[in-house]
Amino acid sequence: MHVVSDRQSPRATALEMAGRQREISVSEFFLKNRHLLGFDTPAKALVTAVKEAVDNALDACEEAGILPDISVQVSDRYGKSRVIVEDNGPGIVESQIARIFGKLLYGSKFHKLSQSRGQQGMGISAAGMYGQLTIGKPLHIISRIKGDKLASEMYVSIDTARNQPDIHKKKRLKWDRPHGTRVEMEMEGHYQKGAHSIEVYLKQTAIANPHLAIIYKDPHGEELRFARTTRKLPPRPVEIKPHPYGIELGRLIQMLSNSKSRTLLRFLEDEFSRVGKKTALNIIELARQHSDRKLSNRSYPKHIAHAQATALHKAIQKTRILAPRTDCIVPIGEKQLLDGLHKELEADFFTVTTRPAAAYRGNPFQVEVAIAYGRPGGAGVEVDESGHMRKKEAQETRASEHLIAQKDEPVHLLRFANRVPLLYQQASCAITKAVIQTNWRGYGLHQPKGALPIAPMAVLVHVASVWVPYTSESKEAIEPYPEILREIKLGLQECARKLAHYLHHEQQLHQEYDRRTYIEKYLPHIGVALQDILALSNNERDSTLKKLDDVLHESRTMQRPAP
Amino acid sequence: MHVVSDRQSPRATALEMAGRQREISVSEFFLKNRHLLGFDTPAKALVTAVKEAVDNALDACEEAGILPDISVQVSDRYGKSRVIVEDNGPGIVESQIARIFGKLLYGSKFHKLSQSRGQQGMGISAAGMYGQLTIGKPLHIISRIKGDKLASEMYVSIDTARNQPDIHKKKRLKWDRPHGTRVEMEMEGHYQKGAHSIEVYLKQTAIANPHLAIIYKDPHGEELRFARTTRKLPPRPVEIKPHPYGIELGRLIQMLSNSKSRTLLRFLEDEFSRVGKKTALNIIELARQHSDRKLSNRSYPKHIAHAQATALHKAIQKTRILAPRTDCIVPIGEKQLLDGLHKELEADFFTVTTRPAAAYRGNPFQVEVAIAYGRPGGAGVEVDESGHMRKKEAQETRASEHLIAQKDEPVHLLRFANRVPLLYQQASCAITKAVIQTNWRGYGLHQPKGALPIAPMAVLVHVASVWVPYTSESKEAIEPYPEILREIKLGLQECARKLAHYLHHEQQLHQEYDRRTYIEKYLPHIGVALQDILALSNNERDSTLKKLDDVLHESRTMQRPAP
């Protein structure tokens, strides 16, 4: 069924082809590739838009040292959705509003090395661009900065051919908030429940951000509130300079030629993290040997040639330098993570671990892992204060059920990057690969080959970094760099060991319970038999049985490992 | 192990935050995210660089109507790789060279709706940027256009802060090629063999491009040649206008306000594919009813308000319009695909199908599927001309082995988009999902739940489109849009039906062979027994046996289905 006809367009010459070469605006590029930004289907677009607005609000509040109060409101009519996100952040200076909301690749977080949710300067303007494409309406923004008597209101869209904001209306108005920002967007959307819902995104956000309070009003007008569990803001991540080990030769050459330092010694001290005078001198001495003594402490950075830069680059790799600083990243913390998990989901067993900081390609990062095992209503056994065992009561099931797998299902993953839940593209994510590559059978779980383990369990992994390497601009999965995979696996193993211990104990309890029930059932018969053989009175029989029971109980209790 | 100290950076005000807002250059963005462009590891970077250069060479040759002769040369010393790709294409006009090789998002293929390998204007300049980052050397380009006495030579790098080319050296020189382009790049690379090698990329490229001749010299100096199997160039894809069904409301509004047409009627006829006067009148009449008669044939496009545009958009969806034109896409073709497969790999059974063209979001696309089943050396049975069966001889194994799975392995996928092989990110690709979602058990293959079928088989899928929705800028996997998934599945089913027929026949042949061997073994014993019972002479016995054998053979042949 080969249907190609013999049609032939005229063949082109080099000159004609040259005439068709054009610059492509970055907005046009992403408009045509909107799935790269998370706007491929109306359902996903709606969640992505909420996520981008909430992430921005959280970043702004934290940077300004404000405890975030965020309200999210979503309505949905015949596939036309409206999203309103309002925060109590510091507000945005009027002259910046249009570019922040109406230009891709514009922002404050890209050029600095410190942890934040946003990093590309694309998310919220992409949401605006999607709304503009599907419904044709601009973003509506109100923002007020502290001390300003009025707020600024603006309608902004993107001129996609130039990647520049278009301001449609602009005015100053009274607003009851002392400071904050409100963004309203209309777009083709589809509201849905389930694993990829706004609710799940917000619930997971609350777990990873215990200092956050959110009020969410869904399209049916129902209100869902997530209260904060701590009034303490996370420490603000410090901005760092690049670590010398992560610098490629070409980048080093570029840094040398852009440097304002007047000597090589100053250049190394000024532009890198962890390089003091002594380390700098060591590097230069080594580079000197590699470059026929054509380098010295006083070499002028801009004049260093390719061969000498190569020698310098080699010398850096061979010099001992302190590991990257880690105060540029802020893990959630074991206690906070446990509190968050306890608050949002019900399980029989929790464990959590925070790994020490590490680095990939010079970028510091840190991994946290938590495991929640056992669903409420599962067949647990517990020991009460008096040492008596009983079956746990089936507890009321909560919405959190979605987060923990059924016992015959693959475990559920809660993936986070810089405190932001990742809901899509699970298969391509470093976190998923690390869980699959961990040998869960060694810890007593069932695991099909090359797949997630099967257990009533949720595995939470948080990767915090100054630069998270996402697999696409929609920031839905983490690129599996070997260093990152390795750290996640180590964290998983730590948690899995504690889980194995718990499961072993659980199993013993279960066996014990069965044995005990068995004994309790047959003790009266033993009593009758003994009475018969030893000719005991009823009282003697009962007291003998009582002693027997106690002895059996004690011997078993002694054997049981401490919880 | 919560290690966060009580450090606190000073909190920022809205004004300070405004001062940090900056524009991010698209080159800086991709430099920091180079994994998005396929340059995450040195091994992958090397393959990606070759691929980008070869894809460009092929596009240029085809556009100029030239049968492509391409040479690829790779060397690799201590992690420093050099790639040289040379073509006999039309050459590049000197004034365009720097921007084509030294600027991201610059090209001729983005804005037109017709099939080509490149579409983003990023690949080759990204390779240059990666070389610049890791080794610090610019790209070296030589290009000569037909009729020009001399060639242009240039060394080009990217000024990443501005996304503009830097020209380091430029001169005119003699070059023995009458026309063509040669690009040389140095980069951190790692040469490797196997499924993700340059060889496999080139072999698959040869399968999908039977008009191409390549000479490849690998780092060990060995030469590999892929000859062309046809001297006929594929028909050149025609450039089309957008189809009205694929246009979102926001885009329609933008088109209206940018239009040079003076009436709505002309606008519809001029700017869309498949809209003649009659269809345009139908659309307008329907839109008129939806918009309180505020629209007419003569409405001035730039003055149409949001409400009327909405009515127009609705009317378009409700009007019957011819399906998109398909001469903008060029499938490989069933015969060419079979020839290519036969040439590059050895199998017992081949089948191929080309689906009719379809569209996703207004973008025409077309799917081709081929299956190659059975590895040389497998236990096949064949019938020779005289009707005798024999076991197939084990054939010499070829390099092609890599492309067909072992019989206890998941099938191998050969994925193509616009004639370009896709080597990475198999798990996220629409092709993989379609193969997994197909019920292969129904066609006689073994298939674990939710996984690829297990068989000695290669499945080739080619998706050709005016705009392939890749899952990232590195163009390694196709986004699983429902329309695309559906077409791939239909193609797979067609091929699978033919495969099932072949397998059924194969199975019968096998059973037959076993039965026949059995009969041949016992016929002499039957002869002896008959001779004994019926008191036959030796001659009578032999002729009876002969008759018996023929009758048995015939009756079996009758039952056997035609091949």
Helix percent of chain A reads 25-40%
Question: Mean of residue pLDDT of chain A?
Answer: 87
Number of helices of chain A: 14
Largest sheet of chain A: 8 strands, mixed
Oligomer: homodimer
Structural class of chain A: alpha+beta
Query: End-to-end span of chain A in angstroms?
Result: 70 Å
What fraction of residues of chain A sit in β-strands? 15-25%
CATH architecture of the largest domain in chain A: 2-Layer Sandwich
Strand order of the largest sheet of chain A: 7-6-5-8-3-2-9-10
Tally of distinct domains of chain A: 4
Shape of chain A: globular
The overall strand count of chain A is 18
Name of the top-level CATH class of the largest domain in chain A: Alpha Beta
CATH-assigned fold name of the largest domain in chain A: Heat Shock Protein 90
Binding site for ATP (chains A, B): 56, 87, 108-109, 475
Function (chains A, B): Relaxes both positive and negative superturns and exhibits a strong decatenase activity.
Protein name (chains A, B): Type 2 DNA topoisomerase 6 subunit B
Subunit structure (chains A, B): Homodimer. Heterotetramer of two Top6A and two Top6B chains.
Entry summary:
Two copies of one chain form a homodimer. The first copy, chain A, has 563 residues and is of the alpha+beta class. Chain A has helices at residues 14-19, 26-32, 42-63, 94-102, 123-134, 198-208, 249-258, 264-271, 277-290, 306-318, 334-344, 430-437, 482-534, 538-559; strands spanning 22-23, 69-77, 80-87, 106-107, 139-144, 151-159, 164-173, 180-188, 213-217, 223-226, 349-354, 358-360, 363-373, 381-383, 389-391, 412-417, 420-422, 457-465.
